[in-house]
Structures are given as structure tokens and as C-alpha cells.
Automatic annotation (TrEMBL):
Protein name according to UniProt: Acyl-CoA carboxylase subunit beta
Organism the protein comes from: Arthrospiribacter ruber
Domain CoA carboxyltransferase N-terminal: 12-270
Keywords: Membrane, Transmembrane, Transmembrane helix
Chain segments annotated as transmembrane: 167-189
Domain of life: Bacteria
GO annotation, biological process: L-leucine catabolic process
GO cellular component entries: methylcrotonoyl-CoA carboxylase complex
Gene Ontology MF terms in the entry: methylcrotonoyl-CoA carboxylase activity
């Protein structure tokens, strides 16, 4: 192995170490002392509940593990947004699991908690996956109520989704395993079946303190909304259980008897390993975001037996398009080629840039995949569309619009992996978050922004300097250098994949070796939802 391979491998493994360290911290939730307090009450933590509930040796694909990372510092932070969400298997059935983490601010809802919960429901609705809610929450975090309560995509939207999913025939089962207060009380009761753990579970619109303040009644929380009250007097909950484990066993029994769903019919053959070892990606993929590389080599580490049937191989070379299999599933791959290529006309084209010919090719390929019912996988390492008079005169906007149109109107499921750069309109054309990918994950090497850090910093510096000079301030070269450093540091922080993951612009940051598993589970989930919409691009930009 050459020096470059070893250098890449070392640097990429360092990034993976940082990722693992972050995830290990996140998985402790509110910390070891808070976990011990839950155990003292006879309760399992959110992650322990999921481990107990899901099938042994099955994979749990976490959604939004890094949500709220680095946010809400004044409130002491909110690891994983105080809720654990992901796709798992219960009695062999794939489902979405949403579990409040009571070790984080008693499971209170922060703005990012609402966003994450809605993302979990969105994935369940798109893929028609049954949902299991493990409820243990003190309700809305009141100091942030203005950012979580009244708007369309705020707290109340989850109950609207409960109702919509019920009407769609999507199974929802809820277990009240701790507090369930105020508006949050509607979530489990709008589910098909609501279970409750005796003594630790409680559900009411207003707790004992608020009841006393509002109507002067003195009543304890257990009498007000405990398991006995709601299973034997009000009939609000269906059955009560002695322990968390008993309650989770009951959910497993429910899922053991659920009928099979219709399938979309995506093609799958026997899974095969890639031709090149997936772990060799660490050495093949440059840790330096500027360096060119052959994306075809990366694809060979991801697809079964390295087989990639390329579409229009000799045309529009800055985008690779072709069909392959990932873990047995047939896929259509659109990937940015990162090496410099030469056209038949003798023109040199920069890697990572979308030109008119490549956009035109991709639009046609996306239409073909829709025609053949093949899920789409986008591998992003994109600097943007080509600029300049030659590109503009050649109709780059028209061809780019054609690609965006075909991609946006696709009815087959789309999956996006951000390997490296994800800049500007390139993010859009390559199925960024705004274009409804069923799942979107990034590698630790990813960077997402309107433009690269260097370009943005220089542009912002020019604007800042002009503004200061207009105000009559003299700027020395030293002042300018300091300003550039401050702007660059801030912008680079916002480029980070962790910044994106914290805000759920991506569903998570993954080890590149996990890419195959993410895509495979994503297509398996999508296969639960038959395609009912006709593919129609409307007015195509010819």
C-alpha cells in the first residue's frame, strides 16, 4: 500500500475516533448519575428499553443520534435532543421506535426534540412502518415554549400525524413508562393501543400542582393519573404492567400477531460482498477535501461484487450514473466524479462540478430508474454547477433545472449519502434534505454550505471591509488578517457534519463502512410502501 493510502487511512480513522467518542457521550444521555436514578426507580433507560424490545442480534438504525449536539448550552445541553429514535426489528417486523430519554431534563421537549420526533414520524409515514412510542416525558420545556408550541412544524404537529397515520392504517402502539403530561398525553392515547407501567407511569392533562393552583383540588399524581386510575376507572389506557420488562414483552406480543404489509416490489437478489473491502475506503477516500480521486473506486467498495453497469459512460463524465446492487437490492446510483475528465471535444472538466452534459445525462437516468422501479442512491461530493459565460451560454441553468425536476418528481425512494463536499445548488440537484430523501446520512469527511469555506470567507471579508471603510474606519493588513481568521473559523464550524447533524439537516454521521447497511435498511423500509403516484415531470426544460 502506498504512502497516500496510509496517510488517508490514518486521518480518516482519526475522524472516526472523534465520531465514536461523540456517540459514546451522547449514549450516556444525562450522565451516569441520572441513569442510576432511573434504575433506583425500577426503570430502564430509553436505550435499555430499545435493546430489550428489539430482536436479539438485529440492527437498530438510529435516526438523529447527534440532534441538538452543541446546542442549548445555557440550559446545560440536550444530548440527542432528549429522545432516541430509529428503525429496528420487533418479532421480525421492521418498525420505527421513539423513546423519550428521562435522563435528559426529565425527557422534556426542546425545539429540536419536536423536530426529531416529527422526522421519525415522517419516515414512518413515507415507508408505512408501524410505530412504537415509549413515553417518559415531563412535557414542553417551558423556557423555550415559544419555539416549540404554536407553529405548523412544532409540538402539535405530532398529534396531527398520529391521526393521519391511524387513517393510513399504520399501526401505532404506545407504552407510558414514566411521566406523560399535558398536550403530550394525547400522543399515546391517539395510538391504537396504550399500555402503562404501574406506579412509574402516569398520564394527565395537568399534574397535582397545577390542579391545586387552577381549581384548588388536593390530589396526588397517582390518584390523578396513575395506572390503576386509567386502566380501572377512566379506561384511558388499555392494560397495566408491573415492570418495564413486562410492558415491553406485551408490545412484542402485539407485534407477533400483526399481519404482513403490501410490498412495493423493489428487486432483491442474494446479497454479495463488494469486490473491494469496504474498510479499504479509509485509505482510498482522500481526507483532504481538495484532492481529486476516482469515485468509481469508492463505488466498488460499496456495491455487490463491485458490479456497476454504467449509463452513458463516455458522456457527461463529471456525474457517474449506473445500476448496481447494494446488499442484494437493485439501485440506481448518481455520484459526483471527483477526478478531472476530458470530453470528446477536448474540453477539460473539473471533478465535483456539474456541467450541462452531466446534468442532462443524470435527468435521463433518473427518469429511466422511475420507469423501471429502481430506488435511487445519491453519493454527494459536489462543489456546485459550472459557472462562467461559456456555461451560461451553453444553458447550464436549463440543464440543471431539468435534473432537479426529474429528481424532485421521482416516485421511487431516494437515499443520499454525503461523502465530502455538498455546496450550493449541487446539494439540491444531488437530492439534499429539501428533496425528501427517505434517509440522508453523511460521512465524517462531509462539509455542507452555500459555498466552500475559503470562497465564503473571502467574499464575507470583502463585504465586511467595505462596510467598515464606508463607516470611516481604517483597516490595516493585520486587522484584515484577523477578520479573515474570525470569519473562516466561524464558517468552518458551520461546515462541520456535526453542525448539520445537530440540526437534523442529515439523519446522522456514519462510519463509511456502515453505508451499505444504511442503504439496505432504507430500501427494506421503503419496500413496505407501494408506489401509488404516477411519475410525472410536468414541463421539462428542453
Amino acid at each position: 500500500m502506498d504512502i497516500e493510502f496510509n496517510k488517508n487511512e490514518d486521518q480518516n480513522k482519526q475522524l472516526l475516533f472523534q465520531l465514536k467518542k461523540k456517540l459514546d457521550t451522547v449514549k450516556l444521555g444525562g450522565g451516569k448519575s441520572r441513569i442510576e436514578k432511573e434504575h433506583e426507580k425500577g426503570k430502564l433507560t430509553a436505550r435499555e428499553r430499545i435493546d430489550y424490545l428489539t430482536d436479539a442480534d438485529s440492527h437498530f438504525l438510529e435516526i438523529g443520534a447527534l440532534a441538538a449536539d452543541g446546542m442549548y448550552a445555557e440550559e446545560g445541553g440536550c444530548p440527542s435532543a432528549g429522545v432516541v429514535t430509529g428503525i429496528g426489528y420487533v418479532k421480525g417486523r421492521m418498525c420505527m421506535i421513539v423513546a423519550n430519554d428521562a435522563t435528559v431534563k426529565a425527557g422534556a421537549w426542546f425545539p429540536m426534540t419536536a423536530k426529531k420526533n416529527l422526522r421519525a414520524q415522517e419516515i414512518a409515514m413515507e415507508n408505512r412502518l408501524p410505530v412504537i412510542y415509549l413515553v417518559d416525558s415531563a412535557g414542553v420545556f417551558l423556557p423555550k415554549q415559544n419555539e416549540i408550541f404554536p407553529d405548523k412544524e412544532h409540538f402539535g404537529r405530532q398529534f396531527r400525524n398520529n391521526a393521519k397515520m391511524s387513517a393510513m392504517g399504520i399501526v401505532q402502539v404506545a407504552a407510558i413508562m414514566g411521566s406523560c403530561v399535558a398536550g403530550g398525553a394525547y400522543l399515546p392515547i391517539m395510538s391504537d393501543e396504550a399500555l402503562i407501567v404501574d406506579k412509574t407511569g402516569s398520564i394527565f392533562l395537568a399534574g397535582s400542582y397545577l390542579v391545586r393552583a387552577a381549581i384548588g383540588e388536593n390530589v396526588d399524581n397517582e390518584t390523578l393519573g396513575g395506572a390503576t386510575t386509567h386502566c380501572e376507572i377512566s379506561g384511558v389506557t388499555d392494560n397495566k404492567y408491573e415492570t418495564d420488562q413486562d410492558c415491553l414483552d406485551a408490545i412484542r406480543n402485539i407485534f407477533d400477531k400483526i399481519g404482513q404489509s403490501e410490498k412495493a416490489g423493489f428487486d432483491r437478489s442474494e446479497p454479495k460482498l463488494p469486490k473491494l473491502k469496504p474498510e479499504d475506503i479509509y485509505g482510498t477516500f482522500p481526507s483532504d477535501r481538495v484532492k481529486p480521486y476516482d469515485m468509481l473506486e469508492i463505488i466498488k467498495h460499496l456495491v455487490d461484487e463491485g458490479d456497476f453497469d454504467e449509463y452513458k459512460k463516455d458522456y457527461g463524465k463529471t456525474l457517474l450514473c449506473g445500476t448496481a446492487r447494494i446488499d442484494g437490492w437493485a439501485v440506481g446510483i448518481i455520484a459526483n466524479q471527483r477526478k478531472i475528465v476530458k470530453t470528446k471535444k477536448g474540453e477539460m472538466q473539473m471533478g465535483g462540478v456539474i456541467y450541462s452534459d452531466s446534468a442532462d445525462k443524470a435527468a435521463r437516468f433518473i427518469m429511466n430508474c422511475n420507469q423501471r422501479k429502481i430506488p435511487l442512491v445519491f453519493l454527494q461530493d459536489v462543489s456546485g454547477f459550472m459557472v462562467g459565460s461559456k456555461a451560461e451560454h451553453g444553458g447550464i441553468i436549463k440543464d440543471g433545472a431539468k435534473m432537479v425536476n426529474a429528481m424532485a418528481n421521482s416516485v421511487v425512494p431516494k437515499f443520499t449519502i454525503i461523502l465530502g463536499n455538498s455546496y450550493g445548488a449541487g446539494n439540491y440537484a444531488m437530492c439534499g434534505k429539501a428533496y425528501d430523501p427517505r434517509l440522508i446520512y453523511s460521512w465524517p469527511t462531509a462539509q455542507m454550505a452555500v459555498m466552500s469555506g475559503a470562497s465564503a470567507a473571502k467574499t464575507l471579508l470583502q463585504i465586511k471591509v467595505a462596510s467598515l471603510k464606508k463607516a470611516g474606519k481604517e483597516i490595516t493588513p493585520e486587522d484584515e488578517a484577523q477578520l479573515l481568521k474570525e470569519i473562516t473559523d466561524k464558517y468552518n464550524e458551520e461546515l462541520s457534519p456535526y453542525y448539520a447533524a445537530a440540526r437534523l439537516w442529515v439523519d446522522g454521521v456514519i462510519d463509511p463502512v456502515e453505508t451499505r447497511k444504511v442503504i439496505s435498511m432504507g430500501i427494506e423500509a421503503a419496500n413496505h410502501s407501494p408506489i401509488t403516484e404516477k411519475f410525472n415531470v410536468g414541463v421539462i426544460q428542453t
